[in-house]
Hints:
The protein is 33% helix and 26% strand. The protein is of the alpha/beta class. The strands form two sheets. Strands 2-1-3-4-11-10-9-6-7 form a nine-stranded mixed β-sheet, sandwiched between helices. The chain has a two-stranded antiparallel sheet with strand order 5-8.
Amino acid sequence: MPLQICILETDILRPELVDQYQGYGRMFEQLFAKQPIAATFSVFNVMNGDYPPADARYDAYLVTGSKADSFASDPWIETLKAYLLERYVAGDKLLGVCFGHQLLALLLGGKAERAPQGWGVGIHRYRLAEQPEWMSPVPEELTLLISHQDQVTRLPERATLLASSEFCPIAAYRIEDQVLCFQGHPEFIADYSRALLDIRQQHIGETAYRSGMDSLQHEHHGHLVGEWMMRFVSHGRMA
């Protein structure tokens, strides 16, 4: 049986990007469709109050990135936090990327805030701190496309650090076999990152813009992290 993945979409793309990229839910569908583990997907935009039916059950719930701050108190964020806490208490597997990475950290006892390091953009490199059995193959260093000015600054209780860098000390973590989160965007492609950089050029500053643009000529491990995420979800499923 294919994995059943619920994607909780926490943003609406800018109008000039919608026609080509549709949304983060669609980007994740395209990423996971290339993985060896079969899966089907249901996408719900929680910014619009769209959630799965009460009787729906999934192998994992994935929280996407967002322009919003994870530590904000918008009503839709508070509703999402309550929903995710229900899922966590029920023992469901949770995946988080960027905003989702930060929101789950906050929800489960960690801390996320505006980072004094400023904007992180383009392709970033991380050291791997742990190598669980589902994390295979393992590169010497992890590279991912990023776009964030907030960071997790304290791990949740019982969380294990997976990846870090000087710029982003808590870049990925897991909580046992239930929660897996990444600050970077495995679903991004270089063209989408390039479009974001162009849109945000004045906001992030010329130095960060040029550095981010230059980095996009390199390869990144988005597809590999997508495979790790699916292995994490399926790990122990048939036991």
